[in-house]
UniProtKB/TrEMBL annotation:
Pathway: Cofactor biosynthesis; adenosylcobalamin biosynthesis. This is Cobalt-precorrin-6A reductase. InterPro entries: Precorrin-6x_reduct. Keywords: Cobalamin biosynthesis, Oxidoreductase. Signal peptide: none annotated.
Length: 264
């Protein structure tokens, strides 16, 4: 999807491709859009039906792998690429790293800090969503709040002795568990709301990815207060390189990284 060209961008503005789908990416788009030294284009995968669009110009859909992304960067005469995708979006992060290397463009990652357990938290850490399902299977039965996203719900479909609240933004396309309630919702959430959801549904296990950040962390506080176990899916490996944790730091990095071709 294309919108109007950024009105604020001057003729020598540096083009930045911003891979998004996160709150940090929307924040950074706002900062860049307000500065005429930059001409930012946001990119979204198009996974959800009604995405929260960043301000400024945006496009939606894949590039066709790392090679397609490298071509897009060259053809668009971008000066830098910022990977502000979700910490679990490992494929696109790998592609951004490969495309930046192929084009010689500066690349920055924006990765929000992980959640860490407090002294009164009861977490079981697992490496993948499939391993989270195996963890539940190892317990005879229970009632789980599942918040790992619609793409992975099918991993739990065979757990017939479990009852689930499946909370997702859009309905999953495949494999809901047989015994479940589907809750279509999107953060941010409050601790009070999360506590209430867990109590009403007599939840004993929360299954979540370690997404980090404040927007959806209320469930962890509520789990702690309600004595609910947490099965925490650890983050996948991601490419190294320059990394910051906030949109403000990403903006400063871009301001200080003055090299690269300019848009004309
Ligand atoms: P993924 O598995 O890493 O990426 C799969 C493919 O989707 C990529 O190879 C790429 O297609 C396309 N893609 C992903 N992000 C894109 C973007 N920002 N712009 C253009 N194409 C993109 O990604 P995912 O885990 O499905 O996540 C998809 C998007 O949702 C990401 O942008 C991420 O920030 C957001 N998100 C993900 C999660 C999560 O839990 N995974 C949670 C919240 C938000 P091509 O190879 O064809 O270029």
């Amino acid at each position: 999807m294309s919108g109007p060209t950024a009105a604020a961008a001057g003729p020598a503005a540096r083009r930045v491709l911003l891979l998004g789908g996160t709150a940090e990416a929307r924040e950074l788009a706002e900062l860049l859009e307000a500065d005429p030294a930059f001409d930012v284009e946001s990119s979204l995968a198009g996974r959800v039906a009604n995405p929260r669009l960043p301000v400024g110009r945006s496009r939606i859909g894949g590039f066709g792998g790392a090679d397609g992304l490298a071509d897009y960067l060259r053809e668009g005469r971008f000066a830098a690429v910022v990977d502000a995708t979700h910490p679990f979006a490992a494929t696109i992060s790998g592609n951004v790293a490969a495309a930046a290397e192929a084009t010689g463009l500066p690349r920055l990652s924006v990765v929000r800090p992980e959640w860490v357990p407090g002294p009164s938290d009861s977490w079981v850490r697992v490496p993948t969503v499939a391993a989270a399902a195996a963890e539940l299977a190892s317990r005879t039965s229970g009632r789980a709040l599942l918040t790992t996203g619609r793409q992975d719900v099918h991993e739990f479909a065979h757990l017939d002795t479990w009852w689930f609240v499946v909370r997702v933004v859009d309905p999953p396309s495949k494999g809901l568990p047989r015994r479940c309630a589907l809750l279509l919702d999107r953060g941010p959430y409050t601790v009070e709301g999360e506590r209430d959801l867990m109590r009403r549904n007599r939840i004993d296990v929360l299954v979540t990815k370690n997404s980090g950040g404040d927007l959806v962390s209320a469930k962890l506080t509520a789990a702690r207060e309600n004595g609910v176990d947490v099965v925490m899916v650890d983050r996948p490996d991601r490419p190294g390189g320059a990394t910051v944790t906030t949109a403000a730091d990403a903006f400063s990095w871009l301001v200080s990284t003055g090299s690269g071709p300019r848009a004309n």
